[in-house]
Amino acid sequence: MATLATTTEKKTHVNVDEKPERKPQRPRVDDKFKIFCGTANERLADDVCEFLGLTRNQALVTRFKDGEAYVQIQENVRGADVFVIQPTCRPVDEHLMELLLMIDALKRASARRITAVVPYYGYGRQDRKDKPRSPISAKLVADLLTTAGTNRALIIDPHASQIQGFFNIPVDPLFASPVLVDYFKKLNLPNLTVVSPDAGGVERARFFAKKLDAPLAIVDKRRVDVDVSEVMNLIGDVRGRSTLVVDDIIDTAGTLVKTADALLREGATQVFAACTHAVLSGPAIERIQKSNITEIVATDSVPLSEAAKKMGKIKILSVADLLARGIRSIHEETSISELFI
Q1: Rounded to whole angstroms, what are the CA distances from 68 to 20, 22, 155, 252, 302?
Q2: Engineered SS bond to 201: which of 84, 168, 196, 277, CB 3.0-4.6 Å?
Q3: 284 and 90 Cβ atoms separated by less than 8 Å
Q4: pLDDT for 3
Q5: Alpha carbon distance 190, 133 (integer Å)
């Protein structure tokens, strides 16, 4: 079996673009508070543990020759409050299956409560039946997590707010907007206009516009295929202004690049972009590299590929402290609402 094990060994972090200053807490003596992770984003899990003053607990994730996953929890979790950190990023199905198997293993090991910490909720874009004979995949994944034994979920920027209602267990949605807004406040862009790339993202863009004291513009687009959209109209004035395009996910970057081109045609002086989840699949890296976008700012909810790190147009901000505060609030049974901003 080829081993892809998670370990408790401290890792040396390299190529960090920028990491917010934070003071790790003193080590906690609480053998009923445990944090595990799969293989999707071990670095983020370690950063969360560092902030909480914990050591990541031991789990083994291996694969048989045919690719089938095998999970073993390597310490006692009976009666423990357990958190499993695992974004369902690429390869989505493999990471989702790892998460489900870890939850099932913890349930069968008699953990008192299991919280799935999913920084990036894969399948979240399929949140409604918009075509005949199509699934509502976001609901199916919620059912799978619940059936596996999840007692609670913690998600950063779910693609649609109604996803909370797909679960029959408590869901705490956290938002990376404050982390991103703080960066752009320090950047102090001149004559800034915040742009929503579609009607569905207006609420998110309006939050940025309010916090940055900037006007709001909206792009009217039409989706012609699953990963293909066409910019139709621009609502708002961007002539002679800096622009910031705000979205939750950048996947193939087709919408983003077309939006940037439309803004520049309308007289914008420069285009920045902000997103929570830099999925960056398919031709995304090449498109961004060739585009006139000045900079993309994203979070570390999913790990960047080596090609994306080398490109130089993407800056990553950490959400480890945000996740850590959410996890601590759940464990200590204190209010988490102060993080819902």
Answers
A1: 38, 39, 26, 28, 23
A2: 196
A3: no
A4: 43
A5: 48
User: Out of 221, 258, 309, 315, which one is annotated catalytic?
Assistant: 221
Q: How many CB atoms lie within 10 A of CB 244?
A: 25
Between CA 83 and CA 168 the distance in angstroms is 18
CA distance 128 to 131: 9
Over the stretch 232-257, which tens digit does the pLDDT of each residue have?
688 999 999 999 999 999 999 998 99
Rounded to whole angstroms, what are the CA distances from 150 to 14, 53, 236, 237?
Answer: 33, 24, 44, 47
Is-catalytic flag, 221?
A: yes
Please state, in angstroms and rounded to a whole number, the distance separating the CA atoms of residues 289 and 322.
30
Q: What is the DSSP string of 245-296?
A: EE-SEESSSHHHHHHHHHHHHTT-SEEEEE-SEE---TTHHHHHHHS---EE
Are 126 and 137 contacting, i.e. CB atoms less than 8 angstroms apart?
yes
Which of 249, 147, 258 has its CA nearest to residue 204? 249
Rounded percentage of the chain residues whose pLDDT exceeds 90? 74
